[in-house]
Amino acid sequence: MSPTPASNYRIDIMGTEDDLRIQQRHLWEQIAEELRRGIHSGKLEPGSRLITADLAARWGVSRGPVREALMALENEGIVHSTRRQGTVVGTPSALDLQAIFCVREALESAAGNVLCDKETLLSSSDRARLSHTLDAMDKAYQRGENAAAIKSDFTFHQLIVDLTGNSRFSAINKNMISQNTQHLKGLDPQIWPQVGWETIRIAHQRILDALLAGDLDSYRDAIFIHYRNSKARASMPKVTPASMGEEPGRLGVDPA
After folding, report:
1. Residue 81: phi, psi to the nearest 5?
2. Is the pLDDT of residue 198 over 90?
3. Rounded distance, CA 206 to CA 110, Å?
4. The pTM is what?
5. 233 pLDDT above the threshold of 80
6. Which of 127, 168, 175, 206 has a CA-to-CA distance to 90 between 20 and 30 Å?
7. Phi-psi region of 165 (alpha: psi -120 to 50; beta: other; left: phi over 0)
């Protein structure tokens, strides 16, 4: 299957589910978000060319905001530019995913230094937010709603970093999660990698329990084990539901 040309990629910028409307203020951010959704959903496939003139014409905007949006996505790491092809959607790889996990592990480990500090322990509302997000992930998996579970999984990890109050940590981690989403879907949209949900649930619960207890050593151990397992799964060969003896809707897909 050849990559989807950007000129053939229809984005309903005037009537999405969230009724998102392109406005002059922060126009490039809204364009970037629409393209990001297309990449993460797989509608814009790896290798698809993103031609500034075509996108600007399709949306009825000037080329300036489109260029800014493409630059932002390149800085985010989900598209890249070459002199020969221009801007294209990045191609996922297990090696890149390993690197992403390394960065995310470092950020979350550093977050523990702040969140487990006895003078800055998590507030009751922060504790509730973390617990609620993990519960939502669990319930989604139990219903076989993998997409919703993955979204809650990423939200849980982003929240850990956000709670440090370090905006630079948060921005870097958000970029890593965006790349993580792209690489996860590119390698296998639905069933890569496949592990038992109980393993995933226990790993996340250990992280949460350590945070709630303010136990830095246990937290670091939980983060290390979680990402060690994620890196190992990133190098696993693809498997089919039949080979696992499972039904697709019940499989655990751990995006880390």
Report:
1. -115, 140
2. no
3. 17
4. 0.73
5. no
6. 168
7. left
Q: What b/e readout covers 24-39, taking b as 16+ CB neighbours within 10 angstroms?
A: eeebbebbbbbbbebb
Mean pLDDT for 22-39 is 80
Burial of 182 (0-12, 13-18, 19+ CB in 10 A): buried
Structure tokens at 38: 């297309």
How many of the other CB atoms lie within 10 Å of CB of 135? Answer: 11
